[in-house]
Amino acid sequence: MNVSLILIVVMAVLFACGVYAMLERSLTRVLIGFLLLGNAANLLLLVVMGRPGVAPFYGAGEAASDPLPQALTLTAIVITFAVSAFLLALIYRSWQLGQADTVTDDEADIAVRERSLAAEETMDDEAELMGDDATTDFVGVDTAPITVLGSRDVPGIVDDAPADRPLRGPRDRGDDS
């Protein structure tokens, strides 16, 4: 097997395990899944980098390696570390409050789940009644949220300056102040 094929297989397994672990209700497993996804993303960037070469600033005649995937990998490592630290703090706080790190359904979640099917059917019925010619609130000039003012609409501005000289201050506008 080729080295890149082994990396691709390992990357695919890490992605699959990471997604499977993130679908659990335990926050610790979500953290493990996120770490697996971060490592899989780093392997993806390693595979995309291609064949290794010399440093881009070393020589012009030889094949140089692409520095962009290396920079993206370092960025992905930093982001994975930051989100992992946040998830660890979230898990610790959840453990302090409930002595468990599993996410459970509360009454509001159950009510939303029961309500969603009936509300979805109601929205479908309303969409059929409205048809394709739905109206908007911003039809006329009176109801428009943005009003464009010209220089004549603003009090205190007079357009009596010559066309070749731009307005500079209050005296040019006709104000006596």
Task: Describe it.
With 177 residues, this protein is mainly α. The protein has a domain at 3-118: Orthogonal Bundle (Helix Hairpins). It is built from five helices and no strands. The protein has helices spanning 3-22, 27-49, 67-98, 107-130, 170-173. Helix 1 (3-22) packs antiparallel against helix 2 (27-49). The longest helix has 32 residues, at 67-98. The protein is extended and about 65 Å long. The N and C termini lie far apart (85 Å).
Topology:
Layout lengths: L2 H20 L4 H23 L17 H32 L8 H24 L39 H4 L4
Helix pairs in contact: 1-2, 2-3
Task: Compute the average pLDDT.
Answer: 75
Q: Estimate the global geometry from the Cα principal axes.
A: extended
Main β-sheet, in a few words? none
Distance between the termini: 85 Å
Structural class: mainly alpha
CATH fold-level assignment of the domain at 3-118: Helix Hairpins
Keywords: Cell membrane, Membrane, Transmembrane, Transmembrane helix
Main location: membrane
Membrane topology: Multi-pass membrane protein
Transmembrane segments: 6-23, 30-50, 70-92
